[in-house]
Design a protein that fits this description.
Number of helices of chain B: 12
Strand order of the largest sheet of chain A: 8-7-6-5-9
CATH class of the largest domain in chain B: Mainly Beta
CATH topology of the largest domain in chain A: Arc Repressor Mutant, subunit A
Low-confidence stretches of chain B: 236-241
Number of domains of chain B: 4
Largest interface: A-B, 129 and 130 residues
CATH architecture of the largest domain in chain A: Orthogonal Bundle
Strand order of the largest sheet of chain B: 9-8-7-6-10
CATH architecture of the largest domain in chain B: Roll
Largest sheet of chain A: 5 strands, antiparallel
Order of helices and strands of chain A: HHEHHEEHHHEHEEEEEHEHEHEHH
Helix content of chain B: 40-55%
Oligomer: heterodimer
Number of domains of chain A: 4
Distance between the termini of chain A: 90 Å
Radius of gyration of chain B: 27 Å
CATH class of the largest domain in chain A: Mainly Alpha
Strand content of chain A: 15-25%
Number of helices of chain A: 13
Strand content of chain B: 25-35%
């Protein structure tokens, strides 16, 4: 079957065309011009027109570079003005990666980390290359019983990574968490990060002329890359935690009124509470509830957790946490009209009493 | 399609580079190394056999010893310059290094110095081989788990010993359990212990940050099943016994992660950007908690009875705040 290709019969598969291009450019003494490639390299002879060939060759060049093949451009010399191409054989090779079987076991485990199809594909190619470099058998004892997994990053990951690698400005529609408003943002992306179940991109927001963090799940539609590479410089240091800190981390302490024997998981993280301390100005818990003081990192994650306990936990302070929990509870209360007999009867009564 | 072509190209280049260094290799062994079936590997060899430098005369082509191949041995006789393994592309380096770096910082790895050293060494060697580009992605896994608890679980896992846990579940019920640990699973937001619970007489998943205390025992664990690899989210739902209810929830687009994280039966995208998921729920407390927590993004719940229960729970909670 493949033999017929060599004879110039059926069209060559893209992978086989690319393979022949790599072999040609590895072996060329100086460089090959596009014309030489079109005429000589197997798989390009089928191009119906010069334009079709140009498109095919440009795409192949991009593909090979993305896979790590160092194709270099050689300016026309001597008898020809035409640009030539060759592969930089020094840059081609993977450096020595001398992994012990135990280390390979750790690498094999890390290979299972990603949930996204694109990241899994990138990872599997990396593993193929390590296998080609002679990596031995993996021994998983050191990491036995561990399974790391990260939530999928979604469609924005690929374009953002490409943009960071090439220093291209990106444009996307973004839904602000606070207002729900969707606006077009122009960003110089610095780093993609995953923290606490969310994926983010940290970068310079051109419209606001400041560092900003964007959550990938709030990007609507496609991420578009600017036409100009090297459009900006990456900062020497990008501190993802500091950048996210401004947004989601508030190393704070919550004071909660908890129904006795409930919210045990929260209580397990509680700080020792000074019993009956009236000097601190902390509001006293309502009768029949315990005062529980719990430190927390992320405001939204902690509000999620507290709201999940329903009536068992009431936030006394801080006000920001109280407001976040109330927002969730009000939304939940609105899920169904208050048609329950007892509750429906109770409300007008209360109104009457207050009136 | 393009992805697959690229995957195959990387494998084709890899096979030649590997054979050039390793000498003749058994077909089965080579197929195993590159993660393909022997039949697929033979197709790869057929493709390589007719590839080479322009001209494509017999001397221009990659060549194998045909006699050996009939005997099941792949023996490369001409590599046409593809003698060295191809370096990693930027994306591949990122996926590999970011994954290892994420793993190296997980509480489950950090809890064991020997394990942490192995992961750190692998990370050093790969970072050296791939360069700085890999820092474009920075992933941190695991939640604020208690290190002492993780150390106990980690040691029990390594030594194959049962642990005694005091655990509080999602429904806020505390219990004492003896558990054979099978796996420590670190996800983006938390670490889970998967194992055999002797109290429940079944496989259970425990969130490590809900383990109130963990004590080692001397009792060896029974054999760990080979499929101890589990879908945690599915496990969390399946762990509670009880009848299965089918529930449909329509979510605002901001809650996209629900479709990825929660074991849904079916996802339907709706024209306005919202989406509906169909869930099989065995643990009503789990569902109530999910809906209470993320009510802001919940647009509709069917059956209405479920929505009514959640709304009633929320009203009871709001009553605790008075007129705020």
């Amino acid at each position: 079957m493949a033999g017929e290709n060599a004879a110039g019969g059926t069209p060559t598969r893209p992978d086989e065309r690319l393979l022949n291009l790599v072999i040609a450019l590895v072996n060329t003494s100086a460089a090959m011009t596009k014309q030489q490639i079109r005429a000589g390299v197997h798989g390009y002879d089928g191009a119906s027109s010069t334009e079709a060939f140009e498109r095919m060759f440009e795409r192949d060049k991009d593909t090979l570079r993305a896979l790590g093949v160092p194709i270099v451009t050689v300016e026309g010399t001597g008898h020809s003005d035409e640009v030539g191409y060759r592969i930089d054989n020094e840059a081609y090779a993977l450096g020595t990666v001398d992994l012990t079987p135990a280390e390979l076991g750790a690498v094999a485990l890390a290979a299972q980390l990603w949930s996204d199809k694109t990241l899994r594909t990138d990872m599997s190619r990396a593993m193929t290359k390590l296998a080609a470099a002679g990596a031995g058998d993996a021994v998983g004892d050191a990491v036995a019983g561990l399974t790391p997994r990260v939530r999928a990053a979604g469609d924005a990951y690929g374009p953002l990574l490409e943009a960071i690698s090439e220093r291209r400005v990106v444009t996307f529609r973004y839904r602000a968490a606070s207002t729900g408003e969707v606006r077009t943002r122009h960003v110089e992306p610095w780093r993609i990060a995953a923290r606490g179940g969310g994926w983010y991109v940290v970068g310079h927001d051109r419209d606001r002329a400041a560092e900003r963090v964007f959550r990938l799940s709030r990007i609507e539609g496609r991420v578009r890359l600017g036409a100009t590479p090297h459009a900006y410089e990456l900062p020497d240091r990008v501190d993802v935690d500091a950048a996210l800190g401004a947004r989601v981390r508030h190393d704070s302490t919550a004071r909660l009124a908890v129904v006795p024997e409930r919210a045990t998981a929260l209580r397990a993280r509680a700080l020792a509470t000074p019993g009956g301390d009236s000097t601190s100005g902390v509001p006293a818990p309502p009768p029949g509830r315990d005062l529980v003081t719990v430190p927390y990192g992320s405001l939204t994650a902690f509000a999620d957790e507290v709201a999940g306990y329903g009536a068992a936990v009431v936030v006394l302070e801080p006000a920001a946490l109280r407001a976040e929990v109330l927002r969730r509870l009000r939304a939940a209360a609105a899920l169904a009209a208050d048609t329950d007999g007892a509750a429906a009867a109770a409300d007008p009564d209360e109104e009457a009493r207050r009136g | 399609m393009a992805e697959r072509a690229n995957d195959r190209l990387v494998r084709l280049l890899g096979i030649v580079a590997y054979l050039d260094g390793a000498g003749p290799v058994d077909v089965e062994e080579l197929a195993h190394r590159f993660g393909v079936t022997p039949a697929r590997l033979r197709e790869d060899i057929d493709a390589l056999w007719v590839s080479g430098t322009p001209g494509y005369m017999p001397d221009d082509l990659i060549d194998f010893d045909a006699f050996s191949l009939e005997e099941g041995l792949v023996s490369l006789t001409q590599s046409r310059g593809l003698t060295r393994p191809l370096r990693l592309g930027t994306r591949e380096a990122v996926a590999l290094v970011a994954a290892l770096r994420a793993m190296s910082t997980t509480p489950a790895v950090q809890a064991d110095p020997g394990r942490a050293a192995v992961v750190a060494a692998a990370l050093d060697k790969l970072t050296a081989a791939t360069g700085e580009a890999a820092s474009a992605v920075d992933v941190r896994l695991g939640g604020p788990e208690d290190v002492a608890t993780l150390e106990v679980l980690s040691r029990a896992l390594a030594t194959g010993r049962r642990v005694r846990l005091r655990y509080v579940d999602a429904a806020d019920v505390t219990s004492e359990r003896e558990v054979d640990p099978w796996r420590l699973l670190t996800q983006s937001e938390a670490t889970y212990l998967v194992g055999w619970c002797h109290r429940a007489g079944g496989r259970r998943t425990f969130r490590v940050d809900r383990v109130l205390s963990a004590e080692p025992t001397d009792v060896p664990v029974s054999a760990v099943p080979v499929d101890a690899e589990v879908d945690v989210a599915a496990q969390v739902v399946a762990d509670a016994a009880g009848p299965v209810d089918e529930v449909r929830v329509r979510w605002a687009s901001a809650a996209r992660w629900v479709a990825e994280e929660v074991p849904v039966e079916e996802v339907t995208d709706l024209p306005d950007g919202s989406f509906e998921v169909r869930l099989r729920v065995t643990n009503p407390a789990w569902l109530r908690r999910l809906l209470l927590t993320h009510a802001v993004d919940v647009l509709a719940v069917d059956p209405p009875q479920v929505a009514a229960e959640v709304a009633a729970a929320a009203r009871a909670a709001l009553a605790g705040y008075g007129r705020d």
